[in-house]
């Protein structure tokens, strides 16, 4: 069943990158197979965990050795406005004896203990490599526990060996579609209900967007999965419109919600002034097409005009300071193109961006905005990054935490823009916060000091 599910995900019609491949190439999957022992890049279990863990009131139980939980726990800076259950590390902690005797009884006991002590609305059970290889029937245990305790116990079947982190994202989406979405009905429905997919409320970014929705009159029915609650996700099928923030990760959820419940979806971005405005315009236009009142568009235009006027005034001081400053953007997915427009808004020059985790549509957006001559790298090796920074081809590198040491070794400023960050960069306020952090990083006196010869030289 898992193999069938993996092949179904690989054949995802909503992913143009997969559909552009031959049938033989499509069967190989979304990315190259992971090398044994590779520590960077994550596995399918890790991808499933980070996609669903922001559902704040759910107990996330990892069925496997303790290292699987230890290496993935709290590795994404998702925030919650209420419950903190999602930040508690639950694991069955399988040992060598469990490998011999099986871990099903241990799993059932763990589910019972969680429900007894914490009483969450649901328990998500993540299958890892070890129980999958020894043959634990996790789905049967979850069904039995659900009947026994009267609570949803959801199996997330994404053991690490089946593929990459991106595949794990999709398998997590499949689990939601199979077991969660559509299982409850909202008390009230409106013509402006929307569902956002692929927004994880990193550093509280969703909270910068939601006040704009409220002012315009858009009701956020469900977010998958930033600052989410289990019951909200279960009612997501009653949204009038779905926005997919990162198409490569959870496009299968948006497509299947459209097939099952007739909910149209579009891909948008909350990063940068123009992209934020375009998202609000697209969202209100599509809601009006689905029956919402036309004044929704007028309210959106009023909010956009006010916020753009305010943000341009706040960005003006940075333009002179950023004149001539060059940025190397080493990220992927939606940020590979959305961050380009966001940074250029502030007057920075982008020397190039990585597209390793980007879709064909992401790359086309970059080409449309920057032209075909713009540097895009599918696989930029660390030594090549180091050479670029050492040769002063960029003044600052923006990337995730795994790449920071390349920049620090080259004695070039570095800023974290990936999932571990502590600052929110989405929306109109977010671009100002991003510019403030870049300015502080560039102007820090430490960079002048580390470039000086050492006293003993």
What does this structure look like?
The protein has 457 residues and is α/β, with parallel strands linked by helices. It has 3 domains: 31-179, 3-Layer(aba) Sandwich (Rossmann fold), CATH 3.40.50.1980; 193-310, Nitrogenase MoFe cofactor biosynthesis protein NifE, C-terminal (Rossmann fold); 322-421, Rossmann fold (3-Layer(aba) Sandwich). It has helices at residues 2-10, 16-19, 23-27, 44-52, 66-72, 96-101, 104-118, 129-134, 138-149, 165-179, 206-216, 230-234, 247-261, 273-289, 295-321, 335-345, 360-370, 382-390, 404-409, 427-442, 446-451, and strands spanning 59-63, 90-91, 123-127, 153-157, 193-199, 219-225, 241-244, 265-267, 326-330, 349-354, 376-377, 396-399, 414-416. Helix 16 (335-345) runs parallel beside helix 17. The longest helix has 27 residues, at 295-321. The mean pLDDT is 86.
Quaternary structure classification: single chain
Q: DSSP strand (E) fraction?
A: 5-15%
Number of domains: 3
CATH architecture type of the largest domain: 3-Layer(aba) Sandwich
- Spans of at least 5 consecutive residues with low confidence: none
The termini sit apart by: 64 Å
What is the H level of CATH, i.e. the homologous superfamily of the largest domain? Nitrogenase molybdenum iron protein domain
- Percent helix, as a range, is 40-55%
- What class do helices, strands and sheet pairing give? alpha/beta
Mean pLDDT: 86
> Quick one: overall form?
globular
Total strands: 13
Q: Please list the strands of the largest sheet in the order they lie side by side.
A: 11-10-9-12-13
Biggest sheet statistics: 5 strands, parallel
Fold-level CATH name of the largest domain: Rossmann fold
What is the CATH C-level name of the largest domain? Alpha Beta
State the helix count.
Answer: 21
C-alpha Rg (nearest Å):
23 Å
